[in-house]
Design brief:
The chain is mainly α and 123 residues long. It has helices at residues 11-22, 27-33, 51-61, 65-69, 77-89, 95-122. The protein is flat.
């Protein structure tokens, strides 16, 4: 296997690169912000960083370390909590009932969003 084989690029590097692109910062800017050595993130294409560096990157982007490691596809820990609450509330419901529950929940959230925005406009 060659070092430039794209399938061998670590999920950690891929996810960090993608998060940096989403936040419109370069890897060099990320390294400076986290006080990492210049070019260190690029070395993670084919090697794993220390856990303290993974934690710093996770904290910077507000994602879980499991997300960076490729063990979880949920970006935000708050999303995980919401998903867990939804699963608990819809436990035992049929797929149709779950869809109806979700539609009703969306209606409630839309109402609350409009209410909050209206209150903001009054202040």
């Amino acid at each position: 296997m060659k070092n430039n084989d794209l399938s061998a690029i670590s999920p950690i590097y891929s996810r960090i690169r993608d998060l940096a692109q989403q936040h419109k910062i370069s890897l060099a800017e990320l390294e400076r912000s986290l006080q990492f050595s210049n070019g260190i993130i690029s070395t993670w294409k084919f090697s794993n960083p220390s856990i303290d560096k993974i934690q710093k990157v996770a904290n910077y982007f507000n994602v879980s370390t499991d997300y960076l490691l490729g063990n979880d596809d949920t970006i935000n820990p708050a999303d995980q909590k919401i998903l867990a609450m939804f699963r608990k509330q819809t436990e035992g419901l049929s797929e149709d009932e779950k869809e109806e529950f979700q539609d009703s929940l969306n209606d409630v959230l839309d109402f609350v969003r409009k209410f909050v925005n209206k209150k903001k406009g009054e202040n």
